[in-house]
Amino acid sequence: MQKRIIRKSRQRRGFTLIEVLVVLGIIVLLATMVGPRILGSREKADRDATFAQVKSIKSNLERYQLDMKTFPSTEAGLAALIEEPSEDAEGVGNVDNWAGPYMEEIPPDPWGNDYQYEYESGDGMPKVWSYGPDGEDGTDDDIKSWKSSEDDEDGGSDVDTSDI
Predict the structure, then answer these.
(1) Which helix (H) or strand (E) holds 152?
(2) 151 HSE (CA, 13 A, CB side)
(3) pTM of the full predicted structure?
(4) Which helix (H) or strand (E) is 44 found in, with range?
(5) How many CA atoms lie within 13 Å of 124's alpha carbon, on the beta-carbon side?
(6) Do 143 and 158 form a contact (C-beta atoms < 8 A)?
(7) What distance in Å separates the CA atoms of residue 34 and residue 157, rounded to the nearest whole number?
(8) Chain CA centroid to CA 123, Å
(9) Neighbour tally for 45: CB within 10 Å
(10) DSSP designation for 85
(11) Beta strands of 15-149 (E only): which ranges?
């Protein structure tokens, strides 16, 4: 009689293949329903963070312009917001008026790329942009501080952050 009881308890130590497959099926089903939502909200959060950083950089560039009477040249770049220009620096304005640093550091975008900067004298506002998730310049996912005529033609995939 004891042998019979021992045998039954030995046979029922693990899960059956059917039970394991059912649990795996449920996990896969849940992952396919929840996964894209989580990934989509991460992408949106990265884009929102980039918009905020571009806005912050533009705001600091405006502070720089108020002090120096011009925006930094393309060559001086965003580094002009952090480092005091030397006396012989070109394209940075009146060096004696520099009241920076205007930012502690220029952070990389959420995808690890440096923000891009361009200013042509007489263009008005400088251009600040991120290459976006793909890391390539000139693609539809670039996040820019200006709105170009191309954006109007292709449905406006880039956002004009000048109003943010």
Answers:
(1) helix 149-153
(2) 14
(3) 0.65
(4) helix 17-68
(5) 3
(6) yes
(7) 26
(8) 26
(9) 11
(10) P
(11) 116-118, 127-130, 143-144
| Token pair in block for residue 26 | 């449920």
Q: Which amino acid is at 139?
A: T
Distance CA 103, CA 160 (A): 23
Under a CB-based contact definition with an 8 Å cutoff, are residues 58 and 72 in contact? no
Q: Which residues of 109-124 are buried (b: 16+ CB within 10 A; e: fewer)?
A: bbeebebbbebeeeee
Helix (H, G, I), strand (E, B), or coil: what is residue 116? strand
What gap in Å lies between CA 145 and CA 128, rounded to an integer?
5
Q: CATH number of the domain at 56-164, out of 3.40.109.10, 3.30.700.10, 1.10.10.10, 3.30.1130.10?
A: 3.30.700.10
What's the average model confidence in pLDDT over 106-110?
92
Which tokens sit at 20? 């394991």
Q: What does the angle CA 118 – CA 58 – CA 120 come to, to the nearest 5 degrees?
A: 25
Backbone angles phi, psi at 12, to 5 degrees: -110, 35
* Tokens matching residue 78: 């965003």
Q: Which residue carries 């396919």 as its tokens?
A: 32
Q: Are 107 and 122 in contact (CB under 8 A)?
A: no
Strand pairing class (143-144; 127-130): antiparallel
Express each pLDDT in 40-98 by its tens digit.
Answer: 788 888 989 999 999 999 999 999 999 888 888 888 899 999 988 777 666 566 778 88
